[in-house]
Design a protein that fits this description.
The chain is of the alpha+beta class. It contains eight helices and eleven strands. It has an eight-stranded mixed beta sheet with strand order 4-10-9-8-5-6-7-11, sandwiched between helices.
């Protein structure tokens, strides 16, 4: 029996199971049958007595016997009730608990940049990009294709120059529906998603900052749209 589930330790469990087999026995007999060290058997039996699982039979040599079966059943019922109450409490806590999420997350290095990009939410309404290099990665291509198919407004401002031209045109070829315009900006990149998240990237310093803040995202969106209106077609 898995009596440990009822808050009974391993010595108590051994002694109780041995007593169920013996029916009535002295402490030394229970120790021998159960394997509980003789130096621990009296403490163990007294603990079982206090829990109501064992009774003392006052004979010339003190004997012990298991209590009526309904005592064990009562102990099981009490433990089940406590577990049920704990489950109810956890359910209530889940309903009122709001997972905490860092508003600003800063990382450094190219490897961490790729990791933080994966933390951006999946766009449902729009995704606006400032692209510094227009790097083409298969996972990004798949993501943009999926977004456009779902009706997401996808706009990209790119640095269009000799060293970026090939990648810009590759994006145009891979996703003809992708809206790209060229815009002059220095060492900077970023992405704005659905008024909820903004990724800012500073290539020279290798720093990437993910900001989860609605007012900031809305401000960046307005700045992007102003830049988009004056940007030139490719």
């Amino acid at each position: 029996m898995e009596l440990e589930l009822l808050g009974i330790n391993k010595y108590e469990a051994r002694a109780y199971e041995a007593l169920l087999q013996l029916g009535k026995a002295s402490a030394p007999e229970i120790a021998q049958e159960s394997g509980v060290p003789y130096g621990r058997i009296y403490d163990t039996l007294n603990s079982l007595v206090s829990k109501g699982l064992v009774i003392i039979i006052p004979e010339k040599t003190k004997k012990f016997a298991p209590a009526p079966q309904d005592i064990l059943e009562k102990l099981i019922s009490e433990r089940v009730a406590k577990i049920s109450k704990l489950k109810e409490d956890l359910t209530k806590l889940k309903k009122i608990h709001v997972p905490s999420e860092e508003v600003v997350e800063l990382v450094k290095g190219q490897r961490n940049f790729y990791k933080i990009v994966e933390k951006l939410p999946t766009p449902k309404r729009y995704i606006y990009d400032f692209k510094y290099t227009s790097e083409v990665r298969p996972a990004w291509v798949r993501k943009i294709r999926k977004a456009i198919r779902a009706g997401v407004d996808d706009k990209v401002l790119v640095r269009y120059m000799k060293k970026t031209e090939a990648d810009v045109l590759k994006w145009k070829k891979l996703i003809p529906k992708l809206k790209q315009r060229k815009f002059e900006f220095d060492d900077f990149a970023g992405q704005i998603v659905d008024d909820c998240a903004v990724l800012l990237v500073m290539p020279k310093s290798g720093i990437s900052i993910l900001i989860r803040d609605e007012p900031f995202a809305k401000l960046m969106k307005k700045l992007f749209e102003a830049a988009w209106d004056v940007a030139k077609e490719i």
